[in-house]
Amino acid sequence: MKKLKIGFWTTAGLVLMMGLVPASAQLPSLKTKEGLGYFIHVETKDSQFGIAADGKASIFPIGKKGPVGRALSIPVEFTVEETYADGKIVVRTIAPESLASAQPATDKPVDVSFHGKVKGEAGFEVFVNEAHGEISLGGKIVDATAAKNPVKFSIRFQFPDVYSYDKDGGDRQAQKKFEGKTKDDRMQVTWSDGKRVKVSTTDKVDATSKEINGPGISELEVQFSTYLDHKFHFTASPNSVISLVNTPNEALHRGFTLIWTADVAKDPESKARINFSVK
Fold it and tell me: What pTM was estimated for this model as a whole?
């Protein structure tokens, strides 16, 4: 099994190293050693989740010696998707200087929210809760008057190339060694119609295909040996779906993005959420 790449720095060091706290950030931040620089910081025995003062967020699974390093963390982005008349979708990311919250920084988020804008001036609001180690995230568009095209809120979880130090090709011996590392890797999705589908993490696929996304994904569980067999579990509440994208014709262990969106017409009160945990 591949040894977990561990960062030998503290949480505070991770924040500083990653440049997560620019001077222009306006969200309040924790002053504790564990949560320094974070607006929200939640730690369980299996993972850390944090939203920094500039709105950047990440999941850090925990190994034998502490949280994983930056290369194996899972960045989480709060975005606004703008759809042009020709069908082209442009993803707008947070303008850090626009962020604000009426609530203090916390390591126990209950009904916490913050708001801001993206380039293009569309405004958004994000909702955060935690209960028994499970994180719940949601959001909505609050001001689209300046947007020239239709916009919608989305949350993106970016899984990295989890075997960036390993080759899945080469001679027979190297290939056999790689197959041994990935033999217990798993991904299972449950579609919105209730059908369960096992998805290969080692075969080259197009993650946007109907064979993987179906009518929309309501639940997903993925496991990689790189993370000491931690399981990542995601569920989309009613009136929302998960979709997957990757570099076409690449194996999912080489990286993929999980995208959550809500159906605004069916969810006018913005109660839909994506819930996730690491076990």
Answer: 0.88
Residue 254 sits at φ, ψ, to 5 deg, of -85, 5
Distances in whole angstroms, Cα of residue 163 to Cα of each of 14, 31, 160, 175, 213: 21, 35, 9, 13, 24
List, for the chain, all residue ranges whose pLDDT scores fall below the cut of 70: 1-25, 120, 167-171
Q: What is the pLDDT of residue 7?
A: 42
Distance CA 78, CA 199 (A): 26
- pLDDT for 236: 98
- What type of residue sits at position 257? T
pLDDT of residue 169: 57
